[in-house]
Amino acid sequence: MIPESDKILASIVGNYGNVNIVKITDGWDSQVFVVNSRRVYKIPSTHRKGSPLKEHFLLKLLRPSLGRLVPSHPELYLYNRGREPIQVLSYDFIPGTTLESSFPVSDSEQMAIAVSFFRIFQVIHSTWVPANRFLSAGSGLSSWKGRYAEMKARFTGENYPELQGNLIDYVQSLLSDFMADLRNFRFTPTFIHGDIDPRNIIWDRPRLCVAGLIDWAEADYGDPAFDAASLFFHEGLGLKYLKISGLAVNADAVHRIEFYHRLVPVYWIEYGYRNDDSTLIRKGTEELLARRNFSIRL
Fold first, then answer.
1. Rounded to whole angstroms, how far apart are CA atoms 86 and 237?
2. Is the whole-model pTM more than 0.85?
3. CATH code 1.10.1040.10 for 97-290
C-alpha cells in the first residue's frame, strides 16, 4: 500500500487496529482495497476528474434494475489534499475473486463464463438509462462514430512522436476504413458496460458463475458488440460467447468485434502518454502489432 493510500484509508475507516485490509487490484486509474471483506474502497491514482462521481451515480441508478451484478450501497468520500480533493468511491464487497486472479480457467469454466455473459449482456443491453451529464444518451450513432473520428484526429506523429510512422499510418488507416464502411453503423445503440476486463469481473468459482461486475466508469450508450469484443481478452472465451449468443452468424457484428479488439491497445498507448507511463506505451505498442492480423475463425 502506498503511503498516500494509507493516509486516505485511515481518514475514512479510522485507526486500523484489527481492521483487515487487502489490496485486490491495481488499475490504470485507481487502487482498490477491501476492508474486513465487507467494503471496497476505490482510490484514484490519477486526477481523472468525474470518474468516481459518474460511477457513484450509475451504481445507485443501476442497482434496482441490474441487482447483484452491481455493487450495492455506494458512497462517495472526499479526501482533502491541497487544492484538489480526491474522490474515493466505496461500495459493498461482492464475494468472489476477480477473473484475472482466477486464471487459468478450464474449458468448462470458459463455457460457464460465456453462458453467464450471454444472460448478463441481455440485461445490461436492454437497460434504459435516462440522458444525464455523464452519458451520451440520445446522441446515438453519430456520437459513436464521433469517438473514432476524435481518436483519428488525436493519433498523429505530432502527438505521439516516439511511435514509428508506419504504426501511426496503420492506426489512421484502421480508423478511416472503419468509419467509411456504413455496415459498421448498422446497429441500435444500447447501454453498455464499456470495460469488460478480467480485473472487473467477479468470478464465483464454486458456483461457476459471474457474481458481479465492477468499474462502471466507462459505461455509456454505444455498440453492444463492443462489450462482446471485450471478452476476447481470452480468445477461447470470446469464441464461445459468439456461438452461444448467435453473433457468430452476424457477419457485420463479427467484423466490428474484430475492429474493436485490434483497437484496444491504442487506448493503452494514449493512457500511457497522458500519464507518462512508458511501460504501458511499450505494452500497447507490442500488443497493437500482435493484434494487427487478428481475425475471428469460427
1. 37
2. yes
3. no
